[in-house]
Amino acid sequence: MVRDAQQFVRGRHLYSYVNPDGSKDSSLEQWFSQLEGTAAPILRKIVANARQAKRPSLTAAEKEIWDAFLYQQWRRVPDLYASLLAPEAHKAEVEHLLDELSTLGRPVSNWERSQLLEPVSLKRMRQNVRVSSLTTGSEMVLSALGRRGLAVAKLANPRKSFILGSRPVVKCTLPGITDLSDPRVELWLPISYDVMAGIGRLDEREILVPLNDQQVRLQNEAAAAQSTQIVGRSRELVQSLSRFVGTKAIFSPMEATSGAPDFSGEAV
Fold first, then answer.
1. 185 touches 177 (CB < 8 A)
2. Domain-embedded: residue 113
3. Who has greater pLDDT, 65 or 125?
4. Position 83 confidence tier, pLDDT thresholds 50, 70, 90
5. I want to staple 169 with a disulfide (CB 3.0 to 4.6 A). Which of 74, 218, 228, 238 is the partner?
């Protein structure tokens, strides 16, 4: 599923900057490809150990690469950007800026306005804004991920499996609690059909989390709810989740104690 995730979130020139002459700068595409190649053996290590009910025992360098991979898988996908800036909102923002320029700067001709508001122009501008935002990262977020341990969840039931959504990283929060430094906030990414990994505790480097059938279903419903597309191991699984796609449900896949996600538990 690791390779599937990489392909699923990527389209043709999805991360290329479009220059004024129409040429494309694929530097970000190449950087993502390098990160995926570096992270791949680490993800395989996590999966292999989880299937033997073992912690992966990542080195500090491997954990840092995993944190970077998780962070990018979380923020790079178009579904997330669409939730932050929909095409309609982007067009309204461009119109507002043109109005502001006409009022405070120089008059904007009807021809200029029509050229900038053409669908092709808007699409190019929105693409470039997204790519530009992805060329820089948040040291604060990476620092928060670095302070958290690694949590690995392995399916207990071999008949079950995780789906992959077009927005693959699921963030689970409680009302008003969204800071990644708070141990009650979870991030989860399926890295195989039977293993997912995410952020763990502040006081323990690695933990293994058992999942029952209900928790697996909640995770899959969550992934479907925040995504516009999903894929899975079976047609029946995808069909059973199709009604949740795009519903933006709020949930936590983990059993909670005292109203907070529970990271306790021994290996499956």
1. yes
2. no
3. 65
4. low
5. 74
Distance CA 64, CA 143 (A): 10
Say whether pLDDT at 193 is over 80.
yes
Helix axes 119-134, 87-104, angle to 10 degrees: 100
Per-residue pLDDT tens over the stretch 28-58: 889 999 999 999 999 999 999 999 999 999 9
For residue 176, give both structure tokens: 């008003």
**pTM (two decimals):** 0.77
Whether 162 maps to a domain, the answer reads yes
Q: Does residue 264 lie in a domain region?
A: no
Euclidean distance between CA atoms 109 and 20, whole angstroms: 20
Pairing label, strands 256-257, 164-165: unpaired
Q: What proportion of the chain, given as a percentage, has pLDDT over 90? A: 51
Can you give the residue range of the structural domain that contains 153?
Answer: 2-81+136-252
Which SS3 state, helix, strand or coil, does residue 145 take?
helix
Q: Which residues contact 27 (CB under 8 A, 6 or more apart)?
A: 17
Residue 22 lies in a domain: yes
55 CB contacts (<8 Å, ≥6 apart)?
A: 49, 152, 206, 207, 208, 267
